[in-house]
Amino acid sequence: MNLHNRKKYLSFLKFKRDFQKYGLEKARSYELVLHWLHNRLSRSQFLLLSGIVVGCSAGLAGVILKTLVHNIHHFISSKVHFEYQMLFYLVFPFLGIVLTSIVVITIFKGQDRKGIGAILYEIAQNSSIVSSVKMYSQIVQSAITVGLGGSAGLESPIAVTGAAIGSNYAQTYRLGYKERTLLLAAGATAGIASAFNAPIAGIMFAFEILLTGVVFTDFIPLVVAAVCGSLLSRILLQEDILFRFYTRESFNYKNVPYYLILGIVTGLYARYFVIISQKVEHFLKKLSLTRLRKAMLGGAVLSFLCVLFPPLFGEGYDTIKAFTNGNTQRIIENSFFRYFEIREWTIILYLLLVCLLKAFATSFTIFSGGNGGNFAPSLFAGGTVGYLFALICQQIGFTEVPVTNLVLVGMAGAMSGVLYAPLTAIFLIAESSFGYDLFIPLMIASVISYLIAKWFSPISPELQSMADQGKIFTDKHDRNLLSALHSEDFIDYNSQTINENISVSEMFELFKKSNKNIFAVVDDKRALRGMFSIDDIRPYLFGDHDVPKNIIQIMKAPPAVFHKEDKPLEILQVFDDTGVWNLPVVDEENRFVGFISKSSILMGYRQLLKEYSE
């Protein structure tokens, strides 16, 4: 048998073993084909193929969600008279949040973790293993919320859906942690690329937000997934659904002062948006209401805001397109402001109120029980701020104001400050407006806004609470790896215990029969009293010291104790502070559980690092 045939035969045997081991006789035909290809292709080739499959799947999910929501919006907003629209604005946003909460409670058993933080949590805490339910739950929930008028965006749910698709694909074909994380990011990348028809922005999103501190040499699957998601969006979505802006002015360096000031304004507005979100979240958490009643409260607030200011209904992209196309009059005519004399200062006041109330509308949508993200709200608010800034400049007396460019740059500035993602914002607007000559103003505003945001808070407030709880880490790669470990996996549940009431001679006999070198002293109820090691009793074994009368004279109080819920990073810090290598773990009632060693955690970290680096 020549070398080529031998390789084919070994590949066949490996596939046969996998077929039997993993129960592939129940697999679908396409899964069998992919399993066969997994055995025949090289690692790089299979990852390339995986990027295509995951990218197309996540992109298709994004197309379905965008189309569904667009059709619902079109029905509500375009085919009824103004008076009936007001009734719809009063009813549908309320129903959207309440129905979403009912679906979460009854169908998804209360599991409603959402937003970009959910993806980071799965990467850091769950070894990039995402529940298969998230492949469709986010679509269902966000379609109900945003489709019926929730003032939030679809991009975060699409990203979570894509991440779930990538993770579950990797789980199906038994890929390692590194490949699983890569395909999770590829799915999220394709989702963002599909939502905005912006592949480069999707890639920037992955590297800037999801994979912070992570270095990948295999970035090709991300590129392929982004291209597939963007192509599906371009092919399948109607022109009016696409996030596209065709009208803009060419860049003129004389307008740089406008962009500098707008960068400061959007940075300050982004901070306002974040503070309002935090206040509303804190307010709703403090309420002693059931989940359904909180949804009803949030839905009522949102409906009231949408009746007064219809631009707050849904994602708001149509409003931004109206700004860039010069159709501002139509926005006013669809609200109660139509009954007032419309002048320039009327429009300015109206848009100012819209900007200020958008933060409340989005926060009540998300935190009261709806499902959505801050992508669309930050873009909407930034575009509105940019247009408002342009109108004020015109009223002051400046005639040559690049109105459309200020709308586009304002979108990038607000998004950069709210999401802490300047590169994603820059490329997103540049791709969506075909405005690559706008890179300079986009960079100016985005960087200024980002620096202002960082000055107020070093990390994104969306992730701050999770970081405070130790669920994710936002600075170093090794911390992210350590957060993927679980303390329970390193506890020695077979640790040797000795009752405090036995004699020293009995203790010596137990020691002779034990293969442990550290012991826990417990009482009759297994409560921890102390600990000692072989070094503590060695002097008594060889007669160097008089044998004490009881164990209490030998044992020592542990310098620290742990609980199973403690994080590995925190445990390692305690080990470093105390200078010991073994410490006891107890439960809530101080009952001894087992010992945990510094070396076992470090070995687990090295194993994960090895798997990640291969």
From TrEMBL:
Q: Where do transmembrane segments lie in this chain?
A: 46-66, 86-108, 182-207, 219-237, 258-275, 295-313, 347-369, 375-393, 405-430, 436-456
Q: Does Chloroplast show up as a keyword for this record? A: no
* GO molecular function per UniProt: chloride channel activity
Q: How would you describe this protein's topology in the membrane?
A: Multi-pass membrane protein
PROSITE patterns on file: CBS
UniProt keyword list: CBS domain, Chloride, Chloride channel, Ion channel, Ion transport, Membrane, Transmembrane, Transmembrane helix, Transport
Q: Where in the cell is it found?
A: Membrane
Q: Which Gene3D superfamilies match?
A: CBS-domain, Clc chloride channel
UniProt key word Membrane: yes
SMART domains, alphabetized: CBS
Task: Give the matching InterPro entries.
Answer: CBS_dom, CBS_dom_sf, Cl-channel_core, ClC, ClC-type_chloride_channel
Q: What is this protein called?
A: Chloride channel protein, CIC family
Taxonomic classification, please?
Answer: Bacteria, Pseudomonadati, Bacteroidota, Flavobacteriia, Flavobacteriales
